[in-house]
Amino acid sequence: MHSLPGTPQFNPWGNRPASSVTCTPCAASARMMTAPDLASDFVPGDHEQRALAVDPRRSIIAQAPAGSGKTTLLVDRYLRLLEVVERPEEILAITFTRKAAAEMRNRVVSALTKNDDPLVQRILSRSNARGWGLPEQSARLSIQTIDSFAAMLVRSLPVASGHRPHMRLEERPTATYRQAVAGVFSRMSEDDPLADDIAALLGDYDDRYERLTNLLVDLLAHRDQWLEPLLIGFSHGRDALHEMLNDALETLFRQVVEDVTTNIGAAEQDELAALARHAAEQLDVDWPWQHLPDQPAGWRLIATLLTTGAGQFRQRLTRREGFPAGGGVARQMKDRANALIEAFRKRGLDGLFAVARRLPDTRIDDAASDRLQHLATLLSLAVLELNRLFDEQGLIDFTELTLAAGRALGSEDSPSDLALALDYRIRHLLIDEFQDTSVAQFRLFRQLISGWQPDDGRTFFAVGDPMQSVYRFRDAEVGLFLEVVRHGIGQLRPESLRLTTNFRARPALVDWSNRAFAGAFGHTEDPVLGRISYTPAQAARVAAAGIAATPAVSLEVFEEHGRHVEAAWLAERISTLRAHDPDSSIALLVRSRAQLTVILPALKDAGIDWQGTEIDLLATMPVIVDLLSLLRALHDPNDLLHWLALLRGPCVGLTLNDLHQLTRQLTPQRPQQPSAIGRLVIEFDAQQAPPGLSADGLARLSRIQPVLKTAYAGLGQVPIRRWLENTWLRLGGADAYPQRGALRAADRLFDLLEQRYPRIVQFDELEAAVANLYADDTAPDSIRPALQIMTIHKAKGLEFDHVLLPGLDQTVLRGEPSMLLWRALGDGLLMASPGDGIYDWLRYEDRERDRNEQLRLLYVATTRARESLHLSMVRRSSNAEIQAPADIQAPQEAAPRRDSLLGPIWEAIAPEAVAHPATDSNTYAARDIRPEPRPRLQRLPRDYRWRPPTETADVRFVDPLPTSAAKSASTFGSATGPQRLGISVGVVVHETLWRLAQEPLPENAQHYVESAASNWSSRFLELGLDGTERDAALATVRRQLLTTLADPDARWLLSANREAASEAPFTGVVDGALTNIVVDRTFLDNAGNRWIIDFKSSQPPADQELDDFVTAQLRNHAAQLRRYRRLLSRVDRGAIHRPRIRAALYFTALGRLVELEPELRDAQDTQHIA
Fold first, then answer.
1. How far apart are CA 918 and CA 925, in angstroms?
2. DSSP 168
3. Which residues, at least 6 apart from 159, have a Cβ–Cβ distance to it below 8 Å?
4. Buried-most residue among 42, 918, 1035, 1146 (CB within 10 A)?
């Protein structure tokens, strides 16, 4: 650990011993608090607001700042609604992540088990009276992500939505977007009537094909923002498109003016109009308005009168603004203007007038309209081509999922039958994290409640924190939160509430946050630019003894070579925190992963273990690069590059000389196949080895040849995941990569292959998918490092005892100006290219929105801390972009750039800064930094032999084998006649039950079966059934699913969610042998029993009694169930109350759950697995 002389020693707990930092549960905060933290008679200062928020009769939009107990509020609201509804399905709760949905569901279910709570008693009494079956039938609780809800809508009306159900969902299939754009440009070489429009668009953008392609790809990825308004305007002709854009400009103008006028009184408006009229006369500018202007030009004049080009109120007025020097009336008018400016300045209104100063005109010119007409033509073709590709490839992106869900609901004026049915069924809508809603999602919510009226018994509840809206890159539109506060949603006008109590942080941290951010956020709001006013917080916790006098926040400023010194300081501070309290949680949060290039080596030098979240891209890990090379090489023996990569990699490890000797055999002897290196390796014979091949190379090739030969012969015979994983293991992959997280990274690739490519791999698509994945840096449970490293975005929603934020002076470089800017505005659209006023406005808006979100990002980062916060930066004199005078030492004079994270709050916190002077004794600069030595070739020993493990400490979740359905499919080729039909039915039934277990069960089984039938028919076609067989199989699946969904036992086991998993693969050792199993369904019931369910789609022959059939089936599968029981007995062996394991068969054709009888059970329930 590097010690920094002159650095104050930091003790986050003062004189309090670390052992006293113990915690007990508290319902209001995920952080456990000691008794002194929260007074026993504590009542939140916002308790009245909280009571209103959970009132089931009211529609509410609640702002819940960091640490205010947002999830608790949601759960309380949900429980109180359960007390008044007729059916649980009348309540729909929407979240934005699966994790949030699972947490909310678990907390609701957990609350329903607290029988001593009067509210819970009333709910359970209502449940019993109405046959709800709560809490056991928890699937009746409609708590979903927005994506799963949209998917349900699409499945319910596949024709209306335009997509068949169960298409593969991808977040952003960039390769498919590019295919669509390329398909449009290919029309230029054909005799296409729209070729001239496409060529005209290229001309509009100076024939810059690649940049235009990238722009169009980006537009397709965000088509929910422009598709409806642009194509509606386009479909009605050039004039309609022109008017649509003008209407959007008019909407923008009204929004900006409303922001100004709602913040100034009527008398101030009269005074402003009089002063503007006077200035216009002095400047000889036309002023046709009696009061405030109704055109952008008039407001630009007013804003120019009041503010400078930098957007700040003027300190003095001159004749250039229409206020010349002089006495009498001139002096009087100037004094009145200065007085008005000062009144506005005190209220922080300069930002509103700065926006008005940049307003564009409300009419688009003809040249810009023509450019957009060409663009609309091309985009309409691109969308058609994209939808064709989606249908062809069987996939859908999240954008299309939301759009398709909207189509399934119909329009607000003409709702579909589904919308009317939902309108009848859903009476209460709850939305979490509302500040992260996109325009398309907002429209979906608005469609969903379009028929709701005030006081009709239906309620809308949204909760979130605009100060934590940081997902603009995911199309989150914080202005929508403000719009609902101001104007409501649909016909509803929810009451606006603000919570203020912070249950998370110690009082000193809450006070610091109020002091640091109040001025930066300000007191005005602007939906157009995403400006949010600050909501001060009040601490619920009280300062513990010995900690009140300890600084909650430290701000360190480093000088020359500061990045290395800062990294060393971070390592020392982390070590200090860990020494004082080994059990505390510590997070190091960064704005970008690039900051870690200096920090991670310093942590390694200090011996600090860490755990990362989405730090390393999966595609950059050597194990993934080598696995992809193995996959490509075995698919193509002529692929020289990937064969060489495989042979050089650690699993084989040929030297460069041996590779040279091997490749010399290619050209002379195989001129017709100069790159068929794969065949040389697959057919390698040690007796005919190249003469120059070393003994080491000979041994290595001889070892891997049979493995690769077997793999090449088996290509296409088994699922890709199983084939590649088995080959990689036998080559020694599990032992060849010592790097951190290598095996977990390999598992992620195998999972991806299983999910998307059962038999055939699309390599470009696969590599694009891998490029968007991150390595799992989760440390083993036995290590549990106190330090977690992640980006600020990934930390949102989390909390830690201590938070470190380095590099807060760094800025993000903006890229080249875009060839097109756009923004959805209400139901319209702003869109423009460089060269007109609308583009200038959108660029200004984009910069301001980025700046405002950057402030919110810092707020999110700092409010993750419970006990202490540690900020650090490098002063400007250490940065290349700005050189400050060398004699400036005070950190207050080394202010970070305004566009850095720390810039907006620097003025408020600068007095707290501690300077670290650059001295030879405490800087990395004094160290002789030499490049790291070139790493030696890492490879397995040449006599390596892979052996499967023969013992293991625990059962592991793995995926070495295909799922139950896939296993049936893998034996399909050898089956004939009735066997083929039975196997096909089993595959589809298992796949359907897996899907049903992932989401709330359908209320209407008949409707579900009818909507899924087309997908089942397509699946049977894929399995090779002809028309007659397909009809018979489809009829069988229909009957079995209707039977299953009508059976209470089936609904119970499919909806159970406590430690539940479907098609769950496990690996362990039983009786000394490696055993792989896939359990159809497993979960813990309310009594703590672990269930193992094996689904059976077989049915008794006509000549066999039902009970005889069931008994025979149970006897036939008893050994299998017994093996499952023995293996899964290890899953819960660390639990305090080890669950009893119960195994059963479920017959989907009969609707019967049959448990393994006592005489057939394994007598040694708790037998240890050898």
1. 9
2. E
3. none
4. 1146
pLDDT of residue 18: 34
Q: Which of 991, 815, 860, 921 is nearest to 166 (CA)?
A: 991
Secondary structure letter of residue 1167 according to DSSP: P
Fold of 46-162+405-502: Rossmann fold (3.40.50)
Query: What contacts 986, CB < 8 A, 6 or more positions away?
Result: 965, 968, 1097, 1098
Pick the CATH number of 964-1156 from 2.40.240.20, 3.40.1160.10, 3.90.320.10, 1.20.1540.10: 3.90.320.10
Q: Do domains 46-162+405-502 and 553-615+783-877+892-916 have the same CATH topology?
A: yes
- Whole-number Å distance between alpha carbons of 647 and 633: 10
| Three-class HEC string of 748-762 | HHHHHHHHHCCCCCC
Q: How far apart are CA 1063 and CA 41, in angstroms?
A: 49
The size of the chain, in residues, is: 1170
pLDDT at residue 95 greater than cutoff 90: yes
Asked if residues 530 and 845 have their Cβ atoms less than 8 Å apart, the reply is no
Cα 1134 from Cα 1140, distance rounded (Å): 13
What angle in degrees, to the nearest 10, is found between the helix axes of 1005-1022 and 978-996? 130
The dihedral region occupied by 171, where left means phi > 0, alpha psi between -120 and 50, and beta the remainder, is alpha
Q: Tokens representing 1136?
A: 């305090």
1093 pLDDT above the threshold of 60: yes
Domain boundaries, the chain: 46-162+405-502, 172-235+365-391, 246-357, 553-615+783-877+892-916, 618-771, 964-1156
* 1050 backbone φψ class: left, alpha, beta (φ>0; ψ -120 to 50): alpha
Q: How far is CA 966 from CA 723, 983, 997, 1050, 1117, in A?
A: 13, 10, 18, 22, 19
DSSP type of residue 847: H
The CATH fold assigned to 618-771 is PCRA; domain 4 (1.10.486)
Query: Taking a C-beta distance cutoff of 8 angstroms, is the pair 593, 604 a contact?
Result: no
Q: Pick from 146-155, 446-455, 852-861, 975-984 the range whose average pLDDT is largest.
A: 852-861
Please write down the HEC assignment for all residues of 507-532: HHHHHHHHHHHHHHHCCCCECCCCEC
Residue 414, CA atoms < 13 Å, CB-side half-sphere: 2
- pLDDT tens-digit profile of 428-468? 999 999 999 999 999 999 999 988 999 999 999 999 999 99
Report the distance separating Cα 903 and Cα 921, nearest Å: 30
Mean pLDDT of all residues in the chain?
82
For tokens 């970008």, name the residue: 592
Residue bearing tokens 């006098």: 549
Measured in Å, how far apart are the chain's first and last C-alpha atoms? 43
Residue 1158 has pLDDT above 60, yes or no: no
Specify whether the CB–CB gap between 855 and 904 falls below 8 A. Answer: yes
Helices (H), 1063-1165: 1106-1128
- Yes or no: domain 553-615+783-877+892-916 corresponds to CATH 3.40.50.920: no
- Strands 1061-1070 and 1073-1084 come out as antiparallel
- Alpha-carbon distance of 1165 to 105, in angstroms, equals 32
Alpha-helix residue ranges (DSSP H) falling in 307-397: 328-346, 350-357, 366-393
Q: From CA 249, how far away is CA 258, in angstroms rounded?
A: 14
Question: What is the Cα–Cα distance from 789 to 872, expressed in whole angstroms?
Answer: 16
Other CB atoms within a 10 A radius of the CB of residue 1035 amount to 12
